DNA sequence: TATTTAAAAGGACAATTGTCTCGCAATAAA
DNA sequence: TTTATTGCGAGACAATTGTCCTTTTAAATA
């Protein structure tokens, strides 16, 4: 649930340091600040250098559904750039987030001229689809208890970084259901979160 | 819910006809036959020339969750090729399906040497992510009734091609829930499917 | 320390969705 | 025509999850 991409980060670090034309800039976001908003134009592609962000959609019901938690090396804005369309997600910083920011044009340029980068982006996109397919299918076919157990280890890692509300939003359930099920699992001795 | 990709089909048609080395072959699958199985090696990338297929995952609960219905121009196997991993979906023909089949190697080759193809694949991947993100979020945040209404028009188009069971599997619900809700909508005069 | 605020936990009840089962209708096989 | 077979629809009930609201806890501030 916390996605990282060291390969992409390793590619971008050196590129940033050798860049003299301002094609890549660093930008810092404070915790809880909004990085990207739904239904807006996107002018840049972002890669997380450090910190954690959440990517979520706000539905007409008022509920937020968290697509993914983004960590080091995770990229966003690239889908909008490739589709040449408005943003379809909100991105909020959870911790302090430092990011590499590259303009759409430079992103296109890299895609066309740098085979390694091109392949990295292809892989990243393919992985995003893979992760989403598996998760969506699992979510639709299993009760809350199973979903929670499946993420047990992730919770342990993220426990002091993300709130209960965020976990609920990630699972597409209410905090009430989350608490109820967590308690049942505690009684059964299957979880101590 | 029935995805097509004319652009990709328009690209592949001429390529197929000018191909003298057997890089692209046509293959026909009968209705209900299996085209791809989960957890198997994938040696080719497929693009649908005509017909309809379904892409689904079988969960440990025994339930099938349909990721998408594939129509003309839709591609699959490309994610496995890019990730260099086993298949993670089953693909079954629904109607008779005629496909262009290209080897992994030729697919890689096209990606590296043909900028147009490369861009088409990037777009296709980005679209797959976009569609999945929107649908997953909607599914998690809305009751069955809303999900059905949202797909009203698609149902009308596909009604005589796909079964009730398949619709239920696409929505991640049981046929019982589907029938119950369809009846309620009929009573309300909101649907006549 | 006392006071305010926000996050977390949970009680009571309602709504939604699933499970199991049976019956009906349509189509295919005997 | 009769007999299986299969998909569809739905009744009765159970389980799951959500809604609304109150209480508890813990951290932040005065």
Automatic annotation (TrEMBL), chains A, B:
<protein>
    <submittedName>
        <fullName>CRP-like cAMP-binding protein</fullName>
    </submittedName>
</protein>
<dbReference type="GO" id="GO:0003677">
    <property type="term" value="F:DNA binding"/>
</dbReference>
<dbReference type="InterPro" id="IPR036388">
    <property type="entry name" value="WH-like_DNA-bd_sf"/>
</dbReference>
<dbReference type="InterPro" id="IPR012318">
    <property type="entry name" value="HTH_CRP"/>
</dbReference>
<dbReference type="GO" id="GO:0006355">
    <property type="term" value="P:regulation of DNA-templated transcription"/>
</dbReference>
<keyword id="KW-0805">Transcription regulation</keyword>
<dbReference type="InterPro" id="IPR036390">
    <property type="entry name" value="WH_DNA-bd_sf"/>
</dbReference>
<feature type="domain" description="Cyclic nucleotide-binding">
    <location>
        <begin position="8"/>
        <end position="128"/>
    </location>
</feature>
<dbReference type="Pfam" id="PF13545">
    <property type="entry name" value="HTH_Crp_2"/>
</dbReference>
<dbReference type="Pfam" id="PF00027">
    <property type="entry name" value="cNMP_binding"/>
</dbReference>
<dbReference type="InterPro" id="IPR000595">
    <property type="entry name" value="cNMP-bd_dom"/>
</dbReference>
<dbReference type="InterPro" id="IPR014710">
    <property type="entry name" value="RmlC-like_jellyroll"/>
</dbReference>
<dbReference type="InterPro" id="IPR018490">
    <property type="entry name" value="cNMP-bd_dom_sf"/>
</dbReference>
<keyword id="KW-0238">DNA-binding</keyword>
<keyword id="KW-0804">Transcription</keyword>
């Amino acid at each position: 649930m916390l996605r990282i991409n060291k390969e992409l980060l390793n590619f971008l670090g050196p590129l940033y340091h050798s860049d003299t034309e301002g094609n890549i800039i660093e930008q810092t976001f404070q915790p809880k600040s909004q990085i990207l908003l739904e239904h807006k134009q996107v002018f840049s592609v972002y890669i997380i250098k450090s910190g954690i962000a959440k990517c979520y959609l706000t539905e007409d019901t008022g509920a937020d559904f968290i697509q993914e938690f983004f960590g080091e090396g995770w990229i966003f804005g690239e889908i909008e750039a490739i589709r040449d369309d408005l943003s379809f997600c909100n991105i909020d910083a959870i911790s302090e987030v430092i990011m590499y920011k590259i303009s759409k044009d430079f992103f296109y340029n890299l895609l066309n001229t740098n085979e390694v980068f091109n392949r990295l982006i292809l892989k990243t996109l393919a992985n995003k689809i893979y992760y989403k397919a598996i998760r969506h299918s699992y979510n639709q076919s299993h009760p809350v208890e199973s979903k929670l157990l499946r993420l047990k280890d992730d919770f342990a890692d993220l426990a002091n970084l993300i709130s209960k509300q965020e976990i609920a939003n990630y699972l597409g359930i209410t905090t009430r259901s989350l608490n109820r099920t967590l308690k049942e699992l505690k009684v059964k001795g299957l979880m101590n979160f």
